[in-house]
Specification:
- The complex is a heterodimer.
- Chain A is an all-alpha fold.
- Helix content of chain A is 73%, strand content 0%.
- Chain A has a domain at 58-129 and 145-221: Cytochrome c oxidase, subunit III, four-helix bundle (Four Helix Bundle (Hemerythrin (Met), subunit A)), CATH 1.20.120.
- Chain A has helices spanning 3-11, 18-45, 62-87, 91-122, 151-184, 188-220.
- In chain B, α4 runs parallel beside α6 (140-159), α7 packs antiparallel against α8 (228-260) and α9 (273-307) packs parallel to α11 (343-371).
- In chain B, strands 1-2 form a two-stranded antiparallel sheet.
- Chain B is globular.
- The chains are: A mainly alpha, B mainly alpha.
Chain lengths: 221, 666
């Protein structure tokens, strides 16, 4: 965006002004928070609804999740460094720290996927019959013979998974930001974009602290 | 259990009504498309409407969608009522139960999500930027995208008419009936995905309008000088922002139950269907206020204009809105007092429900005092408003009856309840939106809708409503439950016949409305679509900024951004007698059109269809397509906009000044 254009934009109250975009993004985060709040409430409601499935105690390794947590929290710091690069108008510093953030985020997602895989491989979430065997899943049979995963685990995977999907979306946007930086460098518009992504990334960290506390600490300890 | 996606065309073969309806829709669609192509309108349609990011054009498109969906939803209503009038005692009517159940579900879903909501967003789109002195909304591309996602949802729900079936579960789809065990086929999936699409669109729209109102008001227009309609939009959009995520979450949980063997709302696996009922009503009750608060806003705009007086109690109106914003979250349990939450809980929600009628009463009195000693002109918008005030008070009173938890045990799920919420929604929401529609129509097109037909439309709706719904109160008190396909007691038939008469009186009202629109289209065709610049204030006595620009407004709305110093900004301008500026314009910066929203909408539509029918490769393809379109827009879209040259602005403003000068002489 050329300087003259910015001037007109402000004079005419036009929409390409970065602050409008950031306010819009704050409001988007507010609505996303309500989505997460519903998932948290849902988890609280079903937090003891194991039915015939296993409880999380024996299956979740808190140390593993703690490492996951630290990786994600560290990625928030590295994103902060990327934003310092943006302030200093240094494309290379921005790129470097964005790349490190991306690696940490990808590591977090990989660990989460590994954990999900582990839980399913151990058979923890599945409904079981009186002998303790996993009931094979039959579509829609609703009398305890249908199999599937118990309400607790349904709430578990949907809450943790929703956060994971958000992080994945953040990673996709990060890849796009590399392309944007390559195409135009640190223009005003790209700075606003990186600012929004920064809000999003820190927001996901805060949500994760809630997930770690409500799901993992309260569930396992 | 068989394959849920088997026999997609079963209904077409077995139910003649469905077959003929689908044939009619296909024929009409083919004729419309052929007509557009033969007349060579496609290019213009694409450039000026489909890819447009102009809030005024998007507003008009939303209203067109809403009117089409009104006809669809009303056809459902006619079918239900005529069937019920025959299906008593020995009579069996003409709709088999599984078809009847789809019809009442579709009627509710379409009327709330695809008629009322698009009409609301049409009015928001058209009016808000003009009222706050802005040139567009904050995010024009998202605005276009919102429309196309809503459109995709509307198309998806209508595809269910011919391919597969629709849910048989009522508009809020209580599980376990809506779960896989109760609804193993694709009906509920159509329900879920069409509403997810429109829900995403509505949420994006809410963000857009909040930012528009907070960031783009004309200089001097503080929040306490903003028109009430914009205030009602703030509160309504804030509610959308908080409640649609809850609905979206509930649909995600139900989807997981239905698609992946999760257990949230099932009877087994430690699920609990009552949790769903809490979610949907945490959404559902504030949703009522999402719809009705802007209706109050419309009345607060229309009543002063046709009473030639300023609005009584401006700040009381705003505080009433804000009180309703808070209280609307504290009443949801009154939808299921019978759940057995206990005396304490029911008492709390019962009392809150009674309290929420107080701020609503404040508004009613404010309109009445605005009219008091005013010089009232009985133009169609004012008739709708007066009809709304009268009818909505009655609906509110039956609401207070229902708020008594102990009495509600008798009223719950009876026809009395159905009569009550139609009383408030038709009387409160529909009458007000139609008031807004006829009120702002001349602003959008430069000429008024036919007055005689407008008055006829109002009286048909008004009388038809009472004839159609008061017998329903009576049968409800006699014990008729809602959503029944057949009643044993033939003594009730006379009530149902009276209701059918009422429905057809309302149909005459809709016919008058459609005739008004046809006359308007003929007028537009005579002008070959080039609407001349019309005068600013066709009703006279306009008070807010939208009446200060030409009708239809130029693409840039305001040649110079107005300075605001009072609540009724345009009234103040008229009092000061400011001449219209005709020289010294700057070029105006405008956002560029984009096709991205349209393509994302198309991908979303096919994505929804593929999800309903479990066509996983198509799901992947369309998901990637939609995301890729979005990303491509961010890479290659034209974000810089363009300039309307000063000379062109001058040309329009000079024509406008000539029209205004002529009007003043006459």
């Amino acid at each position: 965006m050329s300087p003259t254009m910015i001037k007109t934009a402000q004079a005419g109250g036009h929409h390409d002004d970065g602050s409008t975009r950031i306010l819009g993004f704050w409001i988007y985060i507010l609505q996303d928070l309500f989505l997460f709040a519903t998932f948290f409430a849902n988890f609280a409601v079903f937090s003891a609804s194991y039915s015939s499935a296993e409880t999380p105690k024996e299956f979740i390794d808190l140390n593993f999740v703690l490492i996951e947590t630290f990786i994600l929290l560290t990625s928030s710091i590295t994103y902060g460094f990327a934003m310092i690069g943006v302030r200093k108008n240094s494309v290379s510093a921005t790129r470097l720290w964005l790349f490190i953030t991306f690696i940490l985020g990808a590591l977090f997602i990989s660990m989460e996927l590994y954990e999900f895989h582990h839980l399913f491989a151990e058979g923890a979430p599945y409904l079981r019959d009186a002998q303790g065997n996993i009931i094979p899943y039959a579509n829609g049979i609703d009398d305890g013979r249908g199999g599937g995963i118990a309400a607790y685990w349904s709430a578990f995977f949907s809450l943790v998974g929703l956060h994971g999907l958000h992080v994945t979306a953040g990673l996709v946007v990060m890849v796009c930001m590399f392309v944007h930086l390559g195409m135009h460098g640190l223009t005003a518009r790209n700075k606003a974009r990186l600012g929004c992504l920064s809000l999003f990334w820190h927001f996901l960290d805060i949500v994760w602290i809630g997930v770690f506390t409500a799901v993992y600490l309260l569930g396992v300890l | 259990m068989g394959d849920p996606t088997a026999a997609p065309f079963e209904a077409l073969g077995q139910v003649p009504i469905v077959l003929y309806t689908c044939l009619a829709i296909v024929v009409i669609a083919v004729l419309v498309v052929a007509g557009i192509l033969l007349l060579g309108w496609w290019g213009s349609l694409w450039r000026n409407w489909i890819t447009s990011v102009d809030h005024k054009r998007l507003g008009i498109m939303y209203v067109v969608l809403a009117v089409v969906m009104l006809v669809r939803g009303f056809a459902d209503a006619i079918m239900m009522r005529t069937h019920q009038a025959m299906a008593l005692g020995e009579g069996s009517g003409y709709l088999p139960p599984e078809h009847y159940d789809q019809i009442f579900t579709a009627h509710g879903v379409i009327m709330i999500f695809f008629m009322a909501t698009p009409l609301l967003f049409g009015l928001f789109n058209f009016v808000i930027p003009l009222q706050i002195g802005a040139r567009d909304v904050a995010f024009p591309f998202l605005n276009n995208l919102s429309f196309w996602l809503t459109f995709a949802g509307a198309i998806l729900i209508n595809i269910s008419l011919g391919v597969g079936n629709f849910g048989r579960v009522g508009w809020l789809a209580y599980p376990p009936l809506s779960g896989l065990s109760g609804s193993p086929d694709t009906g509920v999936d159509y329900y879920i995905w069409s509403l997810q699409l429109s829900g995403v669109a509505t949420t994006m729209g809410a963000i857009n309008f909040l930012v528009t109102i907070f960031k783009m008001r004309a200089p001097g227009m503080t929040l306490m000088k903003m028109p009430i309609f914009c205030w009602s939009a703030v509160v309504s959009n804030a509610l959308i922002l908080m409640i649609y995520p809850v609905l979206m979450a509930a649909y995600i949980f139900l989807t997981l139950d239905r698609y992946l063997g999760f257990h949230f709302f099932t009877n087994d696996g430690a699920g609990n269907p009552m949790v769903w009922i809490n979610y949907v009503w945490v959404f559902g009750h504030p949703e009522v206020y999402v719809l009705v608060l802007p209706a109050f806003g419309i009345l607060s705009e229309v009543v002063p204009v046709f009473s030639s007086k300023r609005l009584f109690g401006y700040s009381a109106m705003i505080w009433a809105l804000l009180v309703i914003l808070v209280l609307s979250f504290l009443v949801w349990v009154h939808h299921f007092f019978t759940m057995g939450a206990g005396i304490a809980v029911n008492t709390f929600f019962s009392i809150m429900t009674m309290i929420i009628s107080v701020p609503t009463g404040v508004k009613i009195f404010n309109w009445l005092f605005t009219m008091y000693k005013g010089r009232i002109r009985f133009e169609p918008p004012m008739l709708w408003c007066m009809g709304m005030i009268f009818t909505f008070v009655g609906g509110g009173l039956t609401g207070v009856m229902l708020s008594l938890a102990s009495a509600d045990w008798a009223f719950h799920n009876s026809a009395f309840l159905v009569a009550h919420f139609h009383h408030t929604i038709i009387g409160g929401v529909v009458f007000s939106y139609l008031a807004g529609f006829v009120f702002w129509f001349p602003k959008a097109f430069g000429f008024k809708l036919n007055r005689t037909l407008g008055i006829a439309s109002f009286w048909c709706w008004f009388v038809g409503f009472y004839v159609a719904f008061f017998p329903l109160y009576v049968v409800g008190l006699k014990g008729a439950t809602r959503r029944m396909q057949h009643f044993m007691d033939p003594a009730w038939q006379i009530y149902y016949i009276v209701m059918v008469v009422g429905v057809f009186i309302i149909a005459l009202g809709i016919l008058s409305l459609v005739l008004q629109l046809i006359l308007a289209i003929i007028h537009g065709c005579k002008l070959k679509g080039n609407l001349p610049v019309g005068k600013a204030d066709p009703w006279g006595d306009g008070r807010s900024l939208e009446w200060s620009v030409s009708s239809p407004p130029p693409p840039y709305n305001f040649a110079t951004v107005p300075q605001v110093s009072t609540t009724d900004a345009y009234w103040q301008m008229k009092v000061e007698g400011k001449p219209i500026k005709t020289s010294g314009f700057q070029p105006v910066h405008m956002p560029s059109n984009t096709a991205a929203g349209f393509w994302i909408g198309i991908f979303a539509l096919i994505l929804g269809f593929a999800l309903v029918w479990h066509i996983w490769w198509l799901v992947m393809l369309c998901f990637i397509g939609a995301v890729a379109s979005f990303i491509c827009y961010s890479f290659f879209g034209d974000h810089d906009g363009y300039y309307i040259p000063a000379a062109k602005v001058q040309e329009h403003e000079e024509a406008f000044a000539r029209i205004e000068a002529k009007g003043r002489k006459a």
